[in-house]
């Protein structure tokens, strides 16, 4: 081996190549869960916190590339670990860095900073400290979302961040309504039809409209009953127009929002009646059986699968229950509200979703999972399968599948008598 590497606390002004390699190497979430020999957990935690301090310092660097790499590294760490105490001590420093990057950075840096703001609130959970963060970042996010001169990607990221942070931290009903109004002002522009076409006009703003719609829908799930009724009356007759959009993701977002609105409407009013039900179900059925040749096969398959579920929800009040496994626990997603919430947090946490479901008090409270299940080290060790054992199991399963398929495909196999 060579000489031991002298790790600097990332204080060089020139943002050297070595500094950038630290950022990029640390940004791999797999590095947090890699199998290997047992190590001193306390020393590992100290080393991790030392690196994170360096990345926080780098968010103020002169180089935009260095700042963005540091933000991405912090995002990877926050999505893969619970760092509540570390974040609590540095929440104001992190908030100031995020605010500076959103205000003064370019598109990619703004997106990374907005993503980090989401994860910061996920780490902190609901509480006074989180409310302080949102009071600082909320106005900045709203300004970017409503700024027509900002890049679409930045506005999209800020719209998502605004919805998620408001969902997590705010107990102020006035702030909730204000945030929803900001998002409404964005996605309702998608309702406007192009006079020269039958469908919704396709513009480069579609991705922004989708993000704003999904963020608004998430906030609707925590609104009081009276406000829910108002929003349903306002949007239920307009949303079906988005089902004609050229963009697949917009059609799916509109369809899933419709299913969620019907679910909420029926919960608040057992005798709920929708006047244009026949026209709506006809549209949904057409999308669930779409065979247009000009669309890609993958898109058609995805659309048919999603809209079959949406049609069942609208017509039959049915929801296909899904099961999510994390560690020794199981969670059942049995309604559209729960699905919307789960999908939102899965998008921002990525591969860290299972870990946070096990350990994050806020998420466990949202999904009514109770306090984290405490398992001792011996139990965890018996549950954990080594990499070699996983390899043997996968190899055996692969061989078994191959033999079974080969036997079925063999023309000489006895297929039985039909007469």
Automatic annotation (TrEMBL):
Q: So where does this one cross the membrane?
A: none
Which Pfam families does this chain map to?
IFRD, IFRD_C
User: What Gene3D superfamilies does the record point to?
Assistant: Leucine-rich Repeat Variant
InterPro entries, per the entry:
ARM-like, ARM-type_fold, IFRD, Interferon-rel_develop_reg_C, Interferon-rel_develop_reg_N
Q: Where is the Interferon-related developmental regulator C-terminal domain?
A: 360-413
All copies of domain Interferon-related developmental regulator N-terminal, residue ranges: 19-315
Q: Which GO terms describe its cellular component?
A: nucleus
Q: Which SUPFAM superfamilies match?
A: ARM repeat
What keywords does the record list, in alphabetical order?
A: Developmental protein, Differentiation
One of its GO biological process terms is:
cell differentiation
Region: Disordered, residue numbers: 1-38
Signal sequence coordinates: none
| Family named by the database record | Belongs to the IFRD family.
Subunit arrangement? Answer: Interacts with PSIP1/LEDGF.
Query: What protein name is recorded for this chain?
Result: Interferon-related developmental regulator 1
- Species annotation: Formicarius rufipectus
Q: What is the lineage of its organism?
A: Eukaryota, Metazoa, Chordata, Craniata, Vertebrata
Point out the gene that encodes the protein: Ifrd1
